């Protein structure tokens, strides 16, 4: 069958594209290398704990040992199922800042400024407080209030206000400076992923969804992409289309392109892949938000540590969710947030806090058995750039992921200032009743060098890789402003890999926005 469009990847972007194109009566084949999202831990919000690190739902990637992290390697979760990362992520609804998108436009990407993209955020939005000049209602992508409360987080919010951050109820108005509770992509205490929101609400009938369909390469003829080759149930298939759209994410999309002979020539030749189209930028420009997990032991505080470390507490947590869809099982990984400036002269915030009433040694390990809290802080605009590269011509071999965290003096300075700000907030009078004792980074000095090294010890990914197939007005950018591959017809990339610079916040909803805008571009081209 000749398809109008083949979409590779049924994640945050792919599900949106599939619905919009199918609803426009286009014949669409959607290929997902993972499986179904019919798994209870996908839909229970706290189930991310059982989805990350689970080969059923996670690609189980790891980074290279990183000098900036003092030689450590990190797990690098990516969704391996319908809904992609929206099925395993932290569910936080954040758009980034107006300055992010205006910055894209200022580089020559016409149509990508804040005023241009805001309608696409609103298009699919179903905002809990109803429609306004900045928010939409009635769309597929539900934005809800969280369904639990912690006094210790209220006190941290007050401490942040004492440090000078304004309190806010909405981080999505263009300038997100302030402290407040995150809004989440949930509905009545259940996770909202893009498979539920978009795939299962389509009206178009001309959509075929194939799971466990691992794309091996795109097919090129005469300088044009004409289809894909994919493996399913041990058999290799080909499918042809008028246009192919890669939506496999910041790791998967550059990997597929490189396997197809599109990418840095020396890398492809090293692995015996014929160079079809040399493009040095494929897999370069990897950006991520490195979070520094600052943590404090507290006295007399009610936190998840104490609740979840007894059979009675666990039973109460379970009952609260079963009967009311509330409590810790409805929790996003972070409940309270703050956006702040590492230096007062900055025009917009460059730091984001994720504040949690819990502590643990590392993701997946047990909670500590004493009251404690974590105030993770990340640099929203990192200077460091990494790379994604294939390691073999085998499509199922894991790629090399090297983020190169803290590889610039500027990033190390921001990391040091981030820890200092965390300490100042915890030292405010609003937190004094808890007698906070710093656990991480712990008793290290206050010089830039000491704090930067400490940041390398406590830093971890917040799961926001982006930028590896960037769009740009310059010829070195793999994509143009319409997300079309330069030098190859019939091929686009639509996912977080297209970001020229990472947005100032969590990246899931910006990826959905990109797909909404791309669907209009694609349909306009077809006309």
UniProtKB/TrEMBL annotation:
<keyword id="KW-0285">Flavoprotein</keyword>
<feature type="domain" description="Glucose-methanol-choline oxidoreductase N-terminal">
    <location>
        <begin position="249"/>
        <end position="263"/>
    </location>
</feature>
<protein>
    <submittedName>
        <fullName>Choline dehydrogenase</fullName>
    </submittedName>
</protein>
<dbReference type="GO" id="GO:0016614">
    <property type="term" value="F:oxidoreductase activity, acting on CH-OH group of donors"/>
</dbReference>
<dbReference type="InterPro" id="IPR000172">
    <property type="entry name" value="GMC_OxRdtase_N"/>
</dbReference>
<dbReference type="InterPro" id="IPR036188">
    <property type="entry name" value="FAD/NAD-bd_sf"/>
</dbReference>
<dbReference type="InterPro" id="IPR012132">
    <property type="entry name" value="GMC_OxRdtase"/>
</dbReference>
<dbReference type="InterPro" id="IPR007867">
    <property type="entry name" value="GMC_OxRtase_C"/>
</dbReference>
<dbReference type="GO" id="GO:0050660">
    <property type="term" value="F:flavin adenine dinucleotide binding"/>
</dbReference>
<comment type="similarity">
    <text>Belongs to the GMC oxidoreductase family.</text>
</comment>
<dbReference type="Pfam" id="PF05199">
    <property type="entry name" value="GMC_oxred_C"/>
</dbReference>
<dbReference type="Pfam" id="PF00732">
    <property type="entry name" value="GMC_oxred_N"/>
</dbReference>
<keyword id="KW-0274">FAD</keyword>
């Amino acid at each position: 069958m000749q398809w109008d469009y083949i979409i590779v990847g049924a994640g945050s972007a792919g599900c949106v594209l599939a619905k919009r194109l199918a609803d426009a009566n286009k014949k669409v084949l959607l290929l997902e290398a993972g499986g179904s999202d019919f798994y209870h831990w996908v839909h229970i919000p706290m189930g991310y704990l059982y989805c990350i690190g689970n080969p059923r739902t996670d690609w189980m990637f790891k980074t290279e040992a990183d000098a900036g992290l003092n030689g450590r390697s990190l797990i690098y979760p990516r969704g391996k199922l319908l809904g992609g990362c929206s099925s395993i992520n932290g569910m936080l609804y954040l758009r980034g800042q107006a300055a992010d998108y205006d910055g894209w436009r200022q580089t020559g990407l016409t149509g990508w400024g804040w005023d241009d993209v805001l309608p696409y955020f609103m298009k699919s939005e179903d905002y809990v407080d109803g429609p306004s000049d900045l928010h939409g209602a009635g769309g597929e992508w539900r934005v809800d209030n969280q369904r639990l409360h912690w006094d210790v987080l209220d006190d941290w919010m007050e401490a942040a206000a004492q440090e000078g951050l304004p309190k806010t109820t909405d981080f999505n108005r263009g300038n997100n400076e302030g402290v407040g509770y995150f809004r989440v992509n949930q509905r009545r205490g259940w996770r909202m992923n893009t498979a539920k929101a978009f795939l299962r609400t389509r009206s178009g009938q001309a959509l075929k969804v194939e799971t466990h369909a691992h794309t091996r390469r795109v097919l090129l003829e005469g300088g044009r992409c004409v289809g894909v080759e994919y493996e399913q149930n041990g058999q290799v298939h080909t499918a042809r289309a008028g246009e192919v759209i890669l939506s496999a994410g910041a790791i998967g999309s550059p990997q597929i392109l490189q396997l197809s002979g599109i990418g840095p020539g020396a890398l492809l030749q090293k692995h015996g892949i014929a160079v079809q189209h040399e493009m040095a930028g494929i897999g370069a420009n990897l950006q991520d938000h490195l979070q520094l997990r600052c943590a404090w032991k507290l006295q007399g505080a009610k936190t998840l540590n104490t609740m979840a470390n007894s059979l009675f507490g666990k039973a109460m947590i379970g009952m609260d969710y079963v009967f009311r869809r509330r409590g810790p099982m409805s929790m996003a990984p972070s409940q309270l947030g703050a956006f702040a400036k590492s230096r007062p002269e900055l025009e917009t915030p460059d730091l984001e806090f994720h504040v949690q009433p819990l502590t643990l040694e590392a993701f997946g390990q047990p909670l500590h058995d004493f009251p404690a809290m974590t105030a993770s802080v990340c640099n929203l605009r990192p200077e460091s750039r990494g790379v994604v590269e294939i390691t073999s011509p085998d499509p199922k071999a894991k790629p090399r992921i090297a983020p190169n965290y803290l590889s610039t003096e500027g990033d190390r300075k921001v990391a040091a200032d981030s820890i200092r700000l965390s300490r100042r907030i915890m030292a405010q009078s609003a937190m004094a009743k808890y007698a906070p004792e710093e656990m991480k980074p712990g008793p290290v000095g206050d010089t830039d060098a000491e704090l930067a090294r400490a940041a390398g010890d406590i830093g971890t990914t917040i799961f926001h890789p982006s930028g590896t197939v960037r769009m740009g007005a310059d010829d070195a950018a793999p994509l143009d402003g319409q997300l079309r591959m330069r030098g190859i017809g019939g091929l686009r990339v639509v996912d977080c890999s297209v970001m020229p610079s990472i947005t100032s916040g969590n990246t899931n909803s910006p990826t959905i926005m990109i797909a909404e805008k791309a669907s209009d571009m694609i349909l306009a081209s077809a006309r």
